[in-house]
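ping. complex inputs:
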Amino acid sequence: VTGPQHLLASGAAGVVLWVATGEPITLPVAIAAGVLPDVDHVLDYYNRYIRRDWRRIYLILHGWEYFAAMVALYLAAFREPWVLAVALGYLTQIGGDQLHNGGRWFSYFLTGRALARFRSPVILPNEKPDSYEAFVQSIPFGRGPVRRWFAARSTPRFR
Ligand SMILES: [Zn+2]
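pong. complex structure:
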């Protein structure tokens, strides 16, 4: 799922919450929660394209556990619109990735990946060598050179 798609999905959730609660803060909070988790790709991209090591995938900010924790916090302690916006914005992020990135059912559980010892072939068995394309589609300009840079470094090395 690309950055613009995460932006649209979390923005839509934020607008719904804004209308439902009357709190405009829910819009930027939902967008932040729906987009920012993807900064964790920095670590995995570093391993894949700088170190050229595809053995493991961490995705440390992606996990249904985080969503469950946010819902629990909202229900148990902080019944604030902005907490709900964090939870629903994050839901669009993790739900979109779960549905569209072609992982296994456990791929977007932190515990699932840990039990698989973060091994890429187990967690993302159908990952294509050009999985960087979601990132390329997320940058507004300079896609050509960026795509060529990744393409030149995208030979998966699993051992
Ligand atoms: Zn993501």
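The chain has a mean pLDDT of 94.
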